[in-house]
């Protein structure tokens, strides 16, 4: 893959929390890249570090957290070494974010219209009238009915689905190259989730915006992702094209995760009695559990002594598929 | 006849490898500055009160221990008052009254307030509403005003002042308890308790109270300083402790006649009140920080 | 109802719950909101009935009605042929021994200040089922059955992971040996890799004890895994109920079909299928009285749907559908039945 098409290149991102003896490493050298117009899904469970990765890119880590190493290259700029002012500019115009719960990330005392036009006026220096016209266009783009009326409404007057559409409109306002969507549909009902997924697919197709999708929901991943990076306890453990990952997962955790989700299509098609779901034993480790080895070892069906002692590096199986596992990619 | 024993054995509880909650709490106690400083002074004041007879260089009531209105010096560290009594000894013995007043007043206020507030919040409906509207009505009067009225009714002495201060604080404790119980009783664990068959008494005593009392401890330690101040104010107005009791508020009151010429008469008790009130406020803040569940999560 | 087999463990008969509409100071009173509107179904002994619906459809209110946490406006819940809402106070404890509940969020439904062992022991204590050493032994036995180590019983809930907490909640519910368990979204707060453990545990316990489950969830895949029959709820009413595989393979109510189409695919290969999206959002107030409540969003709605409430009709032998045009509901696109 030629470097020129890389939009975002994250190398060895390490994030720690706290200091002294209670210091906890939450991200252990996370690396992945994202190409222009691509949707990459970061998949992980609680404590996997998927949201922290997003916050690090945006420079929005909570005060106790800090980046201990690595690079976050957006084009030729390292976002981690950018000045505060440049970061604010990048954040508004080149990368934007859609959060899980739009109610908490929208300002409750400003109208939807005001929140939309503010960004345009600030980042783009647009006049009031121009910003308003653009805001209306954006609301139409994200499929909101009665856009003029929505402009005058406050966030609490909208439903959850409509709020998420507004969030997406705000994210699109400055035509960013990259949208980071952190669990964008988790708080929504199935039918609304489907609407938002379709909207994001449509936007990606029409505007060519790259999406970094952060989720724990494999269904949403299957619907949206071109490529998938699986995170476990702060490590990227497998990266592959979406189809490859679903068809031939190589990491035992990815395998287990895929097998542990009841598949509606299989259940409905099946003619025999219910097949028992495959279980992953144990539970997700907490970032406070320290190990030099692979964090999946205690739950892994194929773990060896080496796994407990040494973390396997990401090893390419082919051009597009890498896995961190001693047994599967020695 | 176990179904999933293998899972049980291989289940690593992520948090069990960490320190026990008690050790964790201790560690955070040692890290909280306001808790340490506030708690330290509180303990110091309490020790002074307990060992007052041993610590005080003079009998606090002994008239003419030195000459009248002597300035602070080697013999009388804080000087003497208008009757030649040693002010340091009186401040030391005053700590006893102050802590005593605080404990009794907070005890009365907390006990009645928690019962009223919890009943109103748990019962709800018109009864709870009526109870709380009554409390709200009382809350509109300043505590000191209520305490003044009560003392005027009961007669001015230290015991009545303590009771009055305690009663005047009931609306405050009742309102706080009401809020805490109201938010706790909406939590699913209360539903869960009812579903397994727990009756009202059990839900309140076994399930709600252990979750309601810790925040109330914070409120009480903050209320302690308010009670000390109110009692001092009553004594200052001549409605609380009566001479010759070495009560700090009363000492301020009698000392104020000499404030321009012999300021040490008010400096001793004044500083004592200030330090004690500040210590309890710090201590309360520290306890609140320790019990704050968000903070607890962060340390996990 | 076709219940040729043994007497159902649980019957809901025309159950209705209305909440008074909040009245503004000078506004005129509006009609009350019907959170649960004329719901009737049964659950057989040893059976799992899955209840599917989106937020606000009334499925949690239904659970609360069954658990006697609120009283119905009309209609009744029957367990062993006995009406639940008219139980005497002295009979309520006996009822609680028959019907238990597992809550959605094991982080909130376990009292944070009570140790795991005491939480499991509490129902035994309340119901006087075991004393002293026998009680402790019973607690260990229950813990063992749900896969909790006996050594962990002295810990507080926050020291457990989400999956283990839900095991505590299950042990607590099973302590009184109930025959019916209402499970309200029991795995949706858990990590994906842990859900299968809890679902399998529930299936095992059912097989062992002949439990009946009313399994409430918004996640259709989970419901499909555990349920023999499925009921679909929309705005307070059951719009379709029948054998799980039939309903999910060939939904006859247009809402069921659109809901199934909205479920994300399980494999990226299936995503090319064209999706018919359920338009609009669930209206907030359920005050459609003289029409099909789904009509405003239904792609098949005709004039009749706006003036006549569709009554549940039997279809394909053992399915009930509340739609005038259930026969015309198109099949799901091929993709889903992969």
TrEMBL record, chain B:
Mention one GO biological process in which this protein takes part, according to its record: transmembrane transport
Please state what the protein is called: ABC transporter permease
Q: Does the keyword Transmembrane helix apply?
A: yes
What keywords sit in the KW lines?
Cell membrane, Membrane, Transmembrane, Transmembrane helix, Transport
Q: Which GO terms describe its cellular component?
A: plasma membrane
Q: From what organism does this protein derive?
A: Lichenifustis flavocetrariae
Its membrane topology is listed as: Multi-pass membrane protein
List all membrane-crossing ranges: 35-56, 99-125, 216-243, 263-284
One Pfam short name? BPD_transp_1
Is-annotated flag, keyword Transmembrane? yes
Q: What is the lineage of its organism?
A: Bacteria, Pseudomonadati, Pseudomonadota, Alphaproteobacteria, Hyphomicrobiales
Residue ranges of every copy of the ABC transmembrane type-1 domain listed in the record: 95-284
Compartments where found: Cell membrane
Protein family (similarity comment): Belongs to the binding-protein-dependent transport system permease family.
Q: Which PANTHER family match?
A: OLIGOPEPTIDE TRANSPORT SYSTEM PERMEASE PROTEIN APPC, PEPTIDE ABC TRANSPORTER PERMEASE PROTEIN
TrEMBL record, chain C:
Q: What are the GO cellular component annotations?
A: plasma membrane
**Which Gene Ontology BP terms does the record give?**
peptide transport; transmembrane transport
Which domain of life does the protein's organism represent? Bacteria
Against InterPro entries, the record matches this protein to: AAA+_ATPase (IPR003593), ABC_transp_ATP-bind (IPR050319), ABC_transporter-like_ATP-bd (IPR003439), ABC_transporter-like_CS (IPR017871), Oligopep_ABC_C (IPR013563), P-loop_NTPase (IPR027417)
Write down the CDD domains for this protein, in alphabetical order: ABC_NikE_OppD_transporters
Q: Which SMART domains match?
A: AAA
- Presence of the UniProt keyword Nucleotide-binding in the record: yes
Q: Where in the cell is it found?
A: Cell inner membrane
The membrane topology term of the UniProt record is: Peripheral membrane protein
Xref: NCBIfam families: oligo_HPY (TIGR01727)
Entry similarity comment: Belongs to the ABC transporter superfamily.
Q: What is this protein called?
A: ATP-binding cassette domain-containing protein
